[in-house]
User: Fold ABC transporter from Thioclava marina.
Amino acid sequence: MMLELDNLSVLRGQCPVVDSVSAQVDAGELIGLIGPNGAGKTSLMRGALGLIAARGRSSLAGLDPMARARAAAWLPQAREIAWGLSVAELVALGRLPHGRDTQGAGAAAVEEALRRMGLETYRDRTATHLSGGEQAQVLIARALAQESPLILADEPIAGLDPAAQIATMEVFEAHARAGGAVVTSLHDLGLAARHCTRLWVMDRGRLVADGKPQEVLTEQLLAEVFHIRAHFRITPEGPVFQPLSTLGI
Ligand SMILES: Nc1ncnc2c1ncn2[C@@H]1O[C@H](COP(=O)(O)OP(=O)(O)OP(=O)(O)O)[C@@H](O)[C@H]1O
Assistant:
């Protein structure tokens, strides 16, 4: 098992923004963490990693920071790159939890991460001089270079063009197929339905659904949690999801 959460709660003041969530992540899974703005997705991931105070138990939260970083890579929503490093140098920072291994396995992991994200030709560019979407892809490559079995990513595909969004979801699928696991929050329910093996739906701090996309994205759930009406069909080309209108709150 890659991650186990047992009655995890995150309090902001007296108010639980994550409310008694129990769930687990196994090897091979690509879990889409979905839910409206403010539902508690970021707080759940940060609580699971032990980055913010939480009640209950997360299998990752007790680990020391280096051991935790070897077990799980964390890709936060904020994407600011502060230093004028080259793309290759920035991706190599993902190797820090493995000590000084810039030769051999470390260098190979950096190359592989650049290749997977299609960034080979960017390797010598100054990271701060890239566009927002390009920087986002470099930070995903840094997380891949970490070679942690589990990746937790907070809206990693927001702001990427359609090809980069699909390519990133395919990179995550490949990571899961290779025996790892990914939990990623995202607002694009179409991409979530097409690429994720499982969806966790959060609403007002609670995990209100956990299952395969076609089991989870029911008309009732879309109305009650997302306040939308949508087309959702399984087609020969896979699941196709199109939001149609809001239902009001
Ligand atoms: N530092 C903070 N102090 C107080 N309340 C906070 C803080 N951070 C988040 N919250 C509250 O916790 C709740 C959950 O926020 P969180 O960022 O986990 O939601 P989210 O599902 O990731 O939302 P989004 O889709 O908008 O990124 C929200 O109601 C938010 O206002």
